[in-house]
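Hi W., the 2-acetamido-2-deoxy-beta-D-glucopyranose complex you wanted:
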Amino acid sequence: MSLTPRWSRKKPHFPLLAVLLLVFITCSILYNEFNIQQIHESPDHGSARSTQGISFTYVKPNLPKGASEVLDRFSSCNSTKSYSGKKIRWVNPDAESVRRRSTRQESCDVFSGKWVFDNQSYPLYEESSCPYMSDQLACHKHGRSDLQYQHWRWQPHNCNLKRWNLIGMWEKLRGKRLMFVGDSLNRGQWISMVCLLQSVIPANKKTMTPNAQLTIFRAEEYNATVEFFWAPLMVESNSDDPVNHRLAERIIRPDSVLKHSSQWEHADILIFNSYLWWRQGPVKLLWCSEKNRACEELDGLEAMELAMSTWADWVASRVIPLKKRVFFVTMSPTHFWSQEWEPGSEGNCYNQMRPITTEGYWGSGSDLPTMRMVDKVLSHLGSKVSVINITQLSEYRKDGHPSIYRKFWETLSPQQLANPASYSDCIHWCLPGVPDVWNELIFHFL
Ligand SMILES: *[C@@H]1O[C@H](CO)[C@@H](O)[C@H](O)[C@H]1NC(C)=O
Ligand SMILES: *[C@@H]1O[C@H](CO)[C@@H](O)[C@H](O)[C@H]1NC(C)=O
Ligand SMILES: *[C@@H]1O[C@H](CO)[C@@H](O)[C@H](O)[C@H]1NC(C)=O
Ligand SMILES: *[C@@H]1O[C@H](CO)[C@@H](O)[C@H](O)[C@H]1NC(C)=O
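Structure:
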């Protein structure tokens, strides 16, 4: 288990299998409650699949409840064949959006900027003062002694972010439900939001429900909630158990969103994400209309597009922009290959203490075809969804990951301990840290 990454960036055709193996080993640290087995693919290996020659049949999402069996972690496919080319039919797929309340079309692009060291105003809260802090993200508590990672402010190039205002944020939330929906990265952003907000609420006026698929932080005085709903693949899947989702294969119902949307449809402000769970190899599709548990198989990017289409159909048909705000948070980058920012080096995010300063730095963990697909789907939704484009700004923050400074649920072997980079978590983010800025961006656009 002491393999170190050895491929050279100059050779674009390094054996994919070797990379998969290495990443598998690196990521096996995440075989626990927050399991994400990530697979890195070189962008050159793009999964362009010719769609020519396939005649699509269209499927309407949101089949009535009870039409199909429940999908859970015990489900399996009875048979698997390759994808037949079915697509999701949107309610109003080509509706020309009149006016985008887009986060991108402002006069200033707040997602383009740089990190500025600012130990006067940051961190916005103390790690130890947040009773809801996660052991996965509490890096100082778990031994990290360089704390500069807590002191960086995001400075857009041509304007300023709206200054974070705790009471101002609570006033926006008064009488409302704010819900994060997604994977463990989104859960980290939710914990960040709760930690940012909770300090002004007296202990007897706030509650947190026990960990479940839906977890709710409630603040009595404001009659407001900040909730997290575990749905890493957006649509119904065999990974919807927030704790036990350590599965060999991913199975989704690409046309089923009802089960999840019934949980989130009454929220006033929704913040979605989805990405890393689609990067683990092929995904099995179990269409609601299929009998006999017959599955189809598709690569992650195209499966994500189907799931996004189902989700987009829900947004297009149910979201009234004046009544509900919907945000989509783009890919959260990983930092597994230090040679991408420091040629010749062999490490990862472990021991990285400063952000990358190269303007426009982009690592191989952020898949451009995925970004283009997300862009395409969101652009059809016009003003109904605002993009929180965190990818570029988070790419700079190789210093922001927990690496070895978090709780690991499995005992580490002596070999691992001798080589800290081998089990470093370069996926999630320390708190206080980068996700606080993602939430400042939410505040900016609310
Ligand atoms: C902030 O950082 C500067 C420069 O690194 C240092 O001199 C100063 O003592 C720090 N202030 C606080 C309050 O930590
Ligand atoms: C509290 O908020 C909910 C919506 O989240 C609303 O239905 C309810 O009327 C509010 N209660 C009070 C007392 O304002
Ligand atoms: C699996 O497929 C076979 C034949 O197609 C069928 O008889 C059987 O009922 C299926 N099993 C399930 C659990 O659907
Ligand atoms: C996010 O920003 C990047 C540039 O940093 C851009 O290429 C991409 O298209 C943007 N994505 C979306 C969905 O707006």
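Residues 78, 292-293 surround 2-acetamido-2-deoxy-beta-D-glucopyranose (ligand 3) (CB under 6 Å).

W.
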